[in-house]
Write a structure and sequence with these properties.
single chain; mainly alpha; two-stranded antiparallel sheet; 4 helices; globular; DNA binding; DNA-binding protein; BcepMu_gp16
C-alpha cells in the first residue's frame, strides 16, 4: 500500500500549468506511471472524478486528491 499525501490538493488547471512549467506532456506522465492517457485527460477535463480503480490511482498521482494506492490492485 502506498499512501500519497501532499500539502494540498491541486486543481486540474494547476496540474496542467505544472506540466507546462516542467515540459511534461499528459501522454508522458501517463506512460511513466502506467496509466491510460485517456483517463488522465478525462480527469483533467472534469469528465472523471477519480473515485475508483485506475481513475483513483491517477488522481492521487496527479495530486488532485489525497488517497491510498494499493500495491498490485487492478486498475
Amino acid at each position: 500500500m502506498h499512501h500519497v499525501k501532499s500539502n494540498r490538493v491541486r486543481s486540474a488547471d494547476e496540474v496542467r500549468k505544472d506540466f507546462e512549467r516542467k515540459g511534461i506532456t499528459i501522454m508522458s506522465f501517463a506512460r511513466d506511471h502506467g496509466l491510460s492517457p485517456g483517463i488522465v485527460y478525462q480527469l483533467l477535463s472534469g469528465q472523471k472524478k477519480g473515485r475508483r480503480g485506475e481513475a483513483h490511482r491517477a488522481a492521487v498521482l496527479l495530486g488532485m486528491k489525497e488517497g491510498v494506492i494499493e500495491q498490485g490492485a487492478d486498475a
